[in-house]
Design a protein that fits this description.
Oligomer: single chain
Keywords: Signal
Order of helices and strands: HEHHHEEEHHEEEE
Number of helices: 6
Number of strands: 8
Length: 258
């Protein structure tokens, strides 16, 4: 077994062992909470709307709820509306963690059609900012909350998250005659499977949409906390690189080593 694989297996074991540190008798720890006091009320309204969409037993009921959310979005709130927003809360709990990898294409697919030279392919400049960027502010906040949470555990003391300051952009992939090549980025992440619990206050009136609704909606989401990454040369045909789409124009060349 290679050293890399042994390290990977060790990391997985270390991460999964985090849960053995917790005392089952203690109250379960929510890593992240969203309330009207921590976020804009439109964020809470969005979660309530999502719950309503899932539990409504008929379109007519849902239409009435659409009108209700419109009133919540207005500047004038009734006492019940305010109670609904102030007392509803969204909580996130860790259910499982694992170390995994994501692969991204980090350059064009290139072929060398010059029999007298070797072609050179490098990562597209600053491609990681495009590939790894996230415009969802809640998702970004959740990732940083998870990083802070992981710092509480001894098993994560040697991890440096979001460490892309020294990516190997100087990588040079040498392409022989008629060979296909593409640069790929391997990103190492902690995959966090989370339980998201929306606790809906009675004042919201969601039981009018479905009498079986007990006030709590639960679903499960997955988010990925980035650790680091590395570029590498991917030779040959792949799902994103073949002769039909390969580029050969404006290539950089070097003399072969023979």
């Amino acid at each position: 077994m290679s050293l890399f694989r042994r390290l990977t297996l060790f990391a997985i074991v270390a991460i999964t062992s985090v849960f053995s540190l917790r005392n089952p008798a203690q109250e379960e720890h929510a890593i992240f909470k969203i309330t009207s006091h921590t976020h804009d009320k439109s964020t809470i309204i969005g979660f309530l709307q999502d719950v309503a969409n899932k539990i409504a037993v008929s379109p007519a009921h849902l239409n009435r709820f659409h009108q209700w959310t419109t009133s919540l979005s207005s500047s004038t709130l009734t006492k019940e509306d305010k109670q609904c927003l102030d007392n509803s809360v969204v909580k996130f709990y860790i259910r499982s963690l694992k170390l995994t990898e994501h692969i991204y294409e980090a350059s064009e697919c290139r072929i060398n059609l010059n029999p007298k030279m070797q072609s050179i392919l490098q990562p597209t400049p600053n491609i990681h900012n495009l590939l790894l960027g996230d415009n969802d502010m809640l998702e970004i906040q959740l990732k940083y909350v998870l990083m802070d949470e992981f710092n509480r555990y001894q098993q994560f003391k040697d991890y440096k998250f979001n460490d892309f300051q020294h990516l190997n952009y100087g990588l040079a992939c040498i392409i022989d005659y008629q060979q296909l090549m593409q640069v790929e980025l391997m990103e190492t992440v902690v995959e966090a499977n989370l339980e998201r619990k929306v606790e809906v206050d009675e004042a919201c009136g969601l039981n009018a949409l479905n009498q079986n609704f007990i006030g709590t909606a639960i679903d499960y989401i997955t988010t990925h906390v980035p650790i680091n990454g590395t570029f590498y040369c991917k030779k040959g045909r792949s799902s994103t690189c073949n002769r039909a789409i390969a580029d050969s124009a404006n290539a950089r060349y070097k003399l072969p080593n023979y």
